[in-house]
């Protein structure tokens, strides 16, 4: 996975340019790590285990390596989304991102 030190994600300058930005943003994210786009498009799915007959979300420390990679991809994807948006609209989408699991 890229360490994203050369992070030059496309910036959304105006809402009217959303479709053009989304196409560029999608290409950028996929070039960093395809798992990041999966988290954006499908939403992150928490790792679970059956414990005492119930399905429970497990803490990071109990996840296997592939589950940890998805958690990290989701965190990076959300960070890139936030860095790509203009200051004036970040606050308006914060709750929306939480409710839609990061879907664009």
How many strands? 2
User: What is the helix content?
Assistant: 55-70%
**Ends distance:** 22 Å
Main sheet attributes: strand count, strand direction, barrel closure: 2 strands, antiparallel
The total count of helices amounts to: 4
Radius of gyration: 15 Å
Mean pLDDT: 82
Q: In sequence order, what are the helices and strands, one letter per element? A: HHEEHH
Structural class based on helices, strands and sheet pairing: mainly alpha
What global shape is seen?
elongated
Low-confidence stretches: 98-104
Q: Kindly report the spatial arrangement of strands forming the biggest sheet.
A: 1-2
Domain count: the total is: 1
Portion of residues in beta strands equals: 5-15%
Can you describe what's shown?
- It is a single chain.
- Helices cover 56% and strands 8% of the residues.
- It is mainly alpha-helical.
- The chain has one domain (15-100).
- It has a two-stranded antiparallel sheet.
- A hairpin with a 2-residue loop joins strand 1 and strand 2.
- Helix 1 packs across helix 2 (34-42).
- Mean pLDDT is 82; it is low at 98-104.
């Amino acid at each position: 996975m890229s360490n994203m030190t050369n992070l030059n994600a496309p910036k959304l300058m105006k809402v009217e340019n959303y479709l053009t930005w989304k196409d560029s943003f999608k290409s950028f994210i996929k070039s960093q790590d395809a798992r990041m786009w999966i988290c954006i498009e499908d939403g992150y799915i928490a790792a679970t285990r059956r414990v005492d007959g119930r399905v429970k979300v497990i803490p990071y420390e109990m996840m296997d390596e592939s589950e940890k990679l998805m958690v990290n991809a989701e965190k990076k994807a959300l960070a890139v989304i936030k860095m790509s948006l203009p200051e004036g609209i970040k606050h308006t989408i914060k709750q929306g991102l939480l409710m839609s699991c990061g879907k664009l």
